[in-house]
Amino acid sequence: MLDIKFIIENPQFVKESLAKKGFASENVDNLISTYLEMNKLKTSSQALAEEKNKLSNSIKTATADERPAIIAKSKEIGEEFKKQQEQLSKIEADFELQMLKMPNYPSSDCPVGEDESGNVIIRKVGTPRTFDFTPRDHVELMELNDWAEMERIAKVSGSRTYAIKNDLAKLELAIHMMVLDKLREHGFTVITVPSLSKEKPLYGQGYLPFSRDEIYYMPADDIYLSGTAELILNSLHADELLQENQLPILYAGFSPCFRREAGAAGKDTRGLVRVHQFMKTEQFVICKNDIAESEKWHQKLLAISEEVLQDLELPYQVLDICTGDMGAPKYRQYDLEAWVPSQNCYRETHSCSNITDWQARRTNLRYRDNAEGKVRYAHTLNNTGIATPRALVPFIENHQNADGTVNIPTKLQPYLGGKTKIGK
Fold first, then answer.
1. pLDDT at position 61, please?
2. What is the pTM of this model?
3. Does the structural domain 116-422 have CATH classification 3.30.930.10?
4. Domain 4-100 has CATH 2.40.128.110
5. Which is the catalytic residue, given 136, 160, 259, 366?
6. Strand bridging mode 196-197 / 223-225
7. Any catalytic annotation for residue 313?
8. Is 274 a catalytic site residue?
């Protein structure tokens, strides 16, 4: 969430920022009005409490004739105090919800646009392959090599699920191990985290109240299934007061992930592109509250993901995501997209975001700085390390041979026992 003082002092800036992200600017006026009303009630109820205390204390020295009037007045004030407390409780809940719905403002360097059509290509790396044979798509390659049980698993687990096997299953794990090793070399702490979350961390990350329809919920246990390790890692240090010398904290989180993909009916549902459950290695950073520092880490996370795609020898492009496509929590976002031959286009493999202190305010994650001893909210950033099986689609399609085998890039070969290719 944003700082309410910042919103009050910069209402026009916040309104313009909301408009760039497609949010209603009148929400700012409503929020400020609610905040002022809440403070007015707090002042009024506090005055009533003080007056009631004075009356209670005066009873001790009052005469017998004076006491009935004092007691009656005290009772009247008590009833009014109770009424105002009930009103205050409601308006505080309303204010808190409005604050949770207030998106982060975008960087002034972000391209302004309404949707994905406003995203800007920063660079393209590698050249899409020209085949001297008719290439197969990833589903055909899986069928040819006995690498999956797509039809059978659909009977067991429903649509948009997958079961891969043999060399493709080993390839999936090998890619994650390669990425985890890379992140460890860059100073990240490798950590496996649960896919189960209470509701509060979902508000902390920013999934709620914006995207409830995308989340799996188990009411019998009052627990949610996580769509990314970021959700868990973002709340791992919630309510803690760190010291500046503990920062940055770098996590390479590995976990199964679950997404309902509720808004994607009939879109990209063939094969492994858009499934409900997947494996993901996530980069997550907690750093000090300094935009130059967090932007430095943003570029670092982006560079690591580019290294991953280069190690996998995949042609890719880097996108600067526009204001209308980046979502509520984001201050700045880059996406990486790898070339998919069968679709003749680039498809997303990584999403790299600077959240500034928006999440830390929601989780109450703070640190004490060295210079002034002042308590500040940390900045958080996240980026995909690798997500499978989505990344397997461009991988096997780009590296296929005419006989259906798939070449293994040099950097990945040690993770597959030195194999240079897989398949029949």
1. 87
2. 0.92
3. yes
4. no
5. 259
6. antiparallel
7. no
8. yes
